[in-house]
Amino acid sequence: MAFDAASEYATLVSIASETGGHGASVGSADAVYVVVHANKILASHPLPGVTIDATEKEDGIEAFIAVDDGVVLSKQVHLCFGHLGTEGRQVITSHVSIGARARATFLAHCIFPNAVEFLHAMEGDIVVGEGAEFAYNEVHVHGPEGRISVKPVSRVVLHDRALYRGDFTLVEGRVGDLDILIDVDARGEGSRVELTSKVYGKNDDQCRVQDFVRLNGAGSTALVKAKVVLRDASSGMFHGLVEGAAAGARGHVDCTEVIQGAAKAEASPVVRVTHPEAEVTHEAAIGRIADDKIEGLMAKGLDEAQAVDVIVSGLLR
Question: pLDDT digits over 96-127, tens only?
Fold first, then answer.
């Protein structure tokens, strides 16, 4: 399967647009974006107040992205990483700095529609400055067959009154072998963390989600939520840890896993308090889709797999 840079660019942007993204912003003069196929930077567009320094590496790229103090971006920054081939590897190393009082939302599309044997790894360091607000939404699009290894790691540091919202979604196509780790150091006073993960495993997919938050700042807060649906012979494990280590720290971990068929699930929400004035709670549930809901949709003409997909799409919305 051969592509030239123009078709790679057009295909990646088209898929991003079709999967809840804002592909239309790519190419716009008033939008910040980066488009990468394999280790090739196909497009990169900064704006005043936003710096992008990206370098092609042997098997991926390394990028430094900085939003200056006080800059408020009205449009999402669109990062589009992908590969249209069937095998290979792509390693993305990123360093993101959000200046004091800045506001920005990043949307990262990771697109691998034809991958059969592929490794997609991401190593990200994120620093959110004093009083800044930053949202990072990562959406994966995989093919219905094959197996891809996805290894995203994010390390986040929050300063005083900073807000970080992280949303990871992998519900399109096969998950493959997923091992995601998000580690947040909410060291700033009054800093806030919101993490959400949504994963839909099928066939023999393996899904491992690890969300760790350390509330080291006085009055810092965290909400960690995971929704994992597993069917066929897939397996999943959620490990969420919130540590209250400062006066007034408040945190909550909430995990819901749904299994069908021979799928297996494990949930391990851990709460740790190391300061007498901190409070952290958790809840976890593992269950299955009620038969009457599936039968109700099958009565309307859907087969069982289609009925499960409809119900799951609602659960993962």
Answer: 999 999 999 999 989 888 888 899 999 999 99
Contact call for residues 311 and 294 (beta carbons, < 8 A): yes
pTM of the model: 0.91
Among the ranges given (22-31, 154-163, 242-251), the one the predictor scored with the smallest mean pLDDT = 22-31
Q: Which two tokens stand for residue 48?
A: 């005043």
Predicted local distance difference test score (pLDDT) of residue 295: 87
Dist. CA 53–CA 116, nearest whole Å: 31
Instruction: Single out the residue of 292, 294, 231 nearest to residue 259, CA to CA.
Output: 231
Please, what is the angle between helix 291-298 and helix 304-315, to 10°?
120
**What is the CB-side half-sphere exposure of residue 74 using CA atoms within 13 A?**
1
